[in-house]
Every structure is written in structure tokens, then in C-alpha cells.
Amino acid sequence: MSDDTGTQETPAGSTGPRPEPIRFFGTTWVEHDNGYAARRTAVAVGSLTAAAASCLVLRLAYQGLQIAAIGGFVTLLMVVMFAICSAMAFRHTWDGFTRRPDPDRQASLRGLLTIGFVGSLLAYFFRSLTEAPGERLHREEYEEARKQYEKRTTRRSGNPKNRRRA
Questions:
Q1: Residue 156: what pLDDT?
Q2: Is 18 exposed, middle or buried (0-12, 13-18, 19+ CB in 10 A)?
């Protein structure tokens, strides 16, 4: 796999770089074939269902805090924490669809993203309404890799042994 573009180089004798697969879509995002529309629908419904189920679990946790009678301040802190973490996770996930995330930053935000899982699920849902999540990024990288490949192959066309020295 190439570090610059995220595309995989093909074996010798093939026609250029291959597109990088996207989770749940494989490489169907390139030509929008093999059930691409159905997959997008399934991803949208699945992520929205998972977000709704997650909100139900958070509601049960909130009711548990009320039953425990730990106080309004702690309950408020928990609600605010989940809201802020979900908003930050949404933004981070949304940005990850348009550019490659920094691995170090990703590792440092792992806990926050885990707490804000509802935001990540909602970002996935909203992006899947217009395209496969991450499709634009992968398409740009793939097109750039194709351009680079075409540049390299046209520059090296012809057999150098057939050229006469002057």
C-alpha cells in the first residue's frame, strides 16, 4: 500500500493502481456498481438504528443515575460530558471523511471518541445519505494515483534499446 495516496499498487503486468476498499463497500464506490445503492441504504439505516439504540442505552444510564440519587450536579456533569464528547466525535469523524486523520491525534482521542460514539454514528449516517463514508477522500487519492501512473507510463513508453545514440 502506498503511504502517499492510500491506494494499493497492482502486481506487475496490471493496468495501474487499484482503489482502496471502504468498509462495507469494498471497491463498489469506484463505479457505483454491485449493489452500491443498497449498501448505502443499509449503512444509513444501520448507523441510524445503532445511534437510536445507543441513545436508549444512555437514557437507561441516566435513569440509573436518577434512581441512585447521586445529585443534580453529577447528573448534569454526565449529560454535558456525553453531549460534548458526542459533538467532538461527530466533528472528528466527519473530518475523517475528507482527510486522513493524524495517527497520533487519533490515538490520543480514542477515549473521547469512545465516549462520544453516538456522534460518530450520526456522522456516519449523515455522510451515507450522500456518498459512501470516505468516498470523496478515496476517490481523490485514487484519481491522483491514476494520474501519477499515467504520467509514469507515458514517460517510459517505448523500448530504450531501440533508440539510437547520437
A1: 58
A2: middle
The cell 437510536 sits on which residue? 52
Long-range contacts (CB closer than 8 Å, 24 or more residues apart) made by 84-87: 84/116, 85/112, 85/113, 85/115, 85/116, 85/119, 86/115, 86/116, 86/117, 86/118, 86/119, 86/122, 87/116, 87/119
Q: For the chain, what is the total number of helices (H) and then of strands (E)?
A: 6, 0
The pLDDT tens digits of the residues spanning 60-105 come to 988 998 898 888 898 889 999 999 999 999 999 999 888 888 888 8
User: What cell numbers appear for 85 in the block?
Assistant: 464528547
Chain centre to alpha carbon of residue 140: 14
SS3 content of the chain, % helix, strand, coil (to 5): 65, 0, 35
pLDDT score recorded for residue 20: 87
Task: With CA atoms as reference, report the closest residue to 124 among 49, 56, 13.
Answer: 49
How does DSSP classify residue 110?
H
| Residue 158 pLDDT | 59
φ/ψ (deg, to 5) at 22: -110, 140
Measured at the alpha carbon of residue 145, what is the angle toward residues 144 and 148, in degrees to the nearest 5? 85
